[in-house]
């Protein structure tokens, strides 16, 4: 588990070596977090690891009035 801020991205790479699965979490009330998922997916690809599973998790789905990422977009 690492935070999404830029200063934590290089630290995360040292933890990837034996990883078989990734859980990528975004906040539905902040569109920027969803947009960053693409960047994190690219970082995973660049590791060259044999990743068996990737899971995408939408967080804060209960905050319907503040939602910036709709369900359909999240499913794509």
Description:
The protein is of the alpha+beta class. The chain has one domain (6-69). It has helices spanning 6-13, 31-47, 71-75, and strands spanning 21-27, 53-59. Helix 2 (31-47) links the parallel strand 1 (21-27) and strand 2.
Question: Which helices and strands appear, and what pairs or packs with what?
Answer:
Blueprint: H1 6-13, E1 21-27, H2 31-47, E2 53-59, H3 71-75
Helical fraction: 25-40%
Separate helix tally:
3
End-to-end Cα distance: 24 Å
Shape field: elongated
SS-based class: alpha+beta
Averaged pLDDT, please? 82
Report the order of strands and helices. Answer: HEHEH
Q: Give the neighbour order of strands across the main sheet.
A: 1-2
Q: List segments where confidence is low: pLDDT < 50 over at least 5 consecutive residues.
A: none
Computed over alpha carbons, the radius of gyration is 13 Å
Q: Got a strand count?
A: 2
Instruction: Note the beta-strand portion.
Output: 15-25%
Total individual domains: 1
Question: Mind describing the biggest β-sheet?
Answer: 2 strands, parallel
